[in-house]
Write a structure and sequence with these properties.
This protein is about 25% helix and about 40% strand. The protein has about 110 residues and is α+β, with helices and mostly antiparallel strands. The protein has one domain. The radius of gyration is 15 Å and the shape is globular. About 15% of the residues are buried.
Length: about 110
């Protein structure tokens, strides 16, 4: 199963946020290339990628966002389940990616 993790690498001098997003356990070359193409189309820069045994790949991308709200609004539209980590390497409670898209919403009766 593919794992997608994100974190803030650093805050720039002009108070913008440099985010990193990592895709792990990408099965096959086609999936790996499709992820790279999709992420680069959204303005992400490929900073690292590699392969393990039996056609399993990983990729890391970086992108600068003006605000954390800009990041969250983009991350909620992604079709993959994203887990964001804070600076202490703890999971954030924010629902991102397919975790946000699939959450059930309550209807007021």
């Amino acid at each position: 199963m593919m794992n997608v993790e994100a974190w803030v690498k650093y805050k720039t001098e002009d108070s913008r946020y440099n985010y990193s997003i990592q895709f792990d356990n990408l099965k096959g070359v086609r999936t790996h290339k499709r992820i790279i193409k999709e992420m680069m189309a959204h303005g992400w820069e490929l900073t690292s990628h590699g392969s393990g045994k039996k056609d399993v790949f990983m990729s890391i991308f970086d992108k600068i966002y003006e605000t954390q709200e800009d990041w969250v609004s983009w991350a909620r539209t992604v079709e993959y389940p994203i887990v964001e980590f804070n600076s202490k390497n703890n999971k954030k409670a924010t629902k991102l990616g397919s975790y946000y898209l699939n959450k059930k919403r309550c209807k007021n009766g």
